[in-house]
Amino acid sequence: MVGKPTARDWAAARARAGAVGPPDSIGPFGLLCFGMTTCMLMFVVTEWASGAFIPMVIAYALMYGGLGQLLAGILEIIKGNTFAGTAFSSYGCFWLGWAVIEYISIVDKADGINIVGGFPGATGPNFTGKSLWFGLWGILTSGFFVVTLRKNGCLQTIFGTLLVTFFLLAGSSYQPLCGQAAGYIGFFCGSSAIYAALAMLYKSELGWILPGMRSCNYI
Fold it and tell me: Which of 1, 7, 59, 63 has the smallest number of CB atoms closer than 10 Å to its CB?
């Protein structure tokens, strides 16, 4: 009995045929969900926009960065693409959790309850927990980065800048400048994800191979 083709089988078939097919069909959407939402949050972190923009970020974190990216991850897992499925699902859940934390902090602030939000500049008795939270995501992202060393330059840039962003966010409770630096690097990370999404889309639809899309094998 012949099993269902995996993402690797599709890639091999495409390489033989010189065509581009299903494996890239979900990737651009997942990367856009991540990149666009990340850039929106970094508008506030870099202070390009005021904190009044946070409700907009929360909405997109729920629907686009959260549910959209989680859906992309589930579809990738169904296809047999373990790395993309794990990464998209993880960061989709991150955005959903972040949105819930931010919503609760905004609602409870009026009641005088001190709940630390998930963005730089929030301080209080729980700031150490927030730093550990960001640090834990930085460690997870470091693990994902290792896998990208056998992928391509676009993914290496995204995950490399993302892990730096998380660790800077972890330090923002102790040094506000870390938060501002995280904003600029995080914006670059989100922009890199948008670039990678468009590069994958162009490769799939137009056959163009943009810089950073060629496969590499560093480990």
Answer: 1
